[in-house]
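Obj: model holo form, ligand = glutamine.
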Amino acid sequence: MELNELTIHELKDKLNKKECTVPDIVNSYLKKIKEAEPKVDAYLTILEDEAMQEAKAMQEKLEKGEEKGNLFGIPIAIKDAICTKGVRTTSASKILENFISPYDATVMEKLHNEGAIMIGKTNMDEFAMGSSTEHSAYKTTKNPWDLSRIPGGSSGGSAAAVSAGMAPCALGSDTGGSIRQPASLCGIVGMKPTYGLVSRYGLIAYASSFDQIGPFTRDVEDLAILLNAISGHDDKDTTSVNREDEDYTKALVKDVKDIKIGVPKEFFEKGINEEVRDTVLKAAKKYEKLGAKVEECSFKVADYSLATYYIIACAEASSNLGRFDGIRYGYRTKEFKDLKELFKKTRQEGFGDEVKRRIFLGTCVLSSGYNDAYYVKAQKVRNLLRQEFAKQFENYDFLLTPTSPTTAFKIGEKMENPLEMYLADICTVPVNVAGVPALSIPCGYSKEGLPIGMQLIGNYFSESKMIRTAYTYEQNTDWHNMHPNI
Ligand code: GLN
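Output (holo structure tokens):
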């Protein structure tokens, strides 16, 4: 087996036993990037020289016995929405084409402290708005399982990089499903942690009350390792929660006998592809066999969550994106006669269609006359959704649903119809609206050989128990051992 086919914990093991060096590891990923990247287009920036230099420095430390950190010598790919000091950070937008971040996001500082090596910045939908990575201003990432299909989005580059063996792990951000949905469509593990568990400092904002950074990995053990590295209180983020750090690797135990799982029927009805439904229901049966208590339940307000999400997300986006004006960051139009025209032309030329659509929608729902009817109403429904989750978690530890209503769709298939594209998030957005955590793990393959993922949704800060529940399923199945031929 090549080094680039291993998990974080396997790589750590090899390093410990001196069966390989840090430069061997980085080299192996760079080699795979050379082979697969021309087909997959997962990266916007590849840090070949920087990563190799760091690897050599790390190896010296290792030989001197100075190695530190739980991700020592492990390469990682970073979504281009996360600020990385001295490295181009574009959020896949033309408006940030030449933006070199002057500082590191908190998660980047944490990764450096643990000894991780950033290998590149990954492609995404512009400003994380989308479900397919087709809304990038630069390129469309392809699904490593079938290059004619999308990898999901908006963190599609991160998911495709891990799935194709071009990184052992990656970070993404999830505002309405952008980690879980691409993880599901690429056959890997992805988690959106509880809102506030991971600092958002240095994450380019889309919808601040939903955004959350989270990990992509090849298995659940790696997920625990990476979550340990990035979670924790941060003074620089006022929404960061101040609670004692947990060691998520302690949850890597195979036992679900005390776990109660609800299967909300509304998540299996209209719009859900039959193969996806059957596969996820099979996983529910598997949980039963493993000793969990599983029963069907009903999630009342599911129907309203998509509208609620898009109203609030667009409202917040229209405000967050006000800062891109040609003065402070990145792109500036070449010719303008006054300040107003500078703003106007910069934004006209710098933003893509989907971003403009969201700014427009957000501005509408916040404008006087519409504010009460849309924005305020959506906030009320948001509360109902929170209450509905709270009610579910009185009875169940987790809700089990499909992550995505379909397997990966064809490139171009939904580009002409934004509403169709928005429906790709039907199973994931309620989670962000309430702020609870959820993860996606592989649970099967379609007849065409495309990955299918299931979603576990839990109560606030239930990550440890969620990791245990996912780990138990994973260790009793083989899906995590399947990789695309790329
Ligand atoms: N697809 C959803 C949207 O476009 C979610 C995106 C995300 O989670 N960043 O808003």
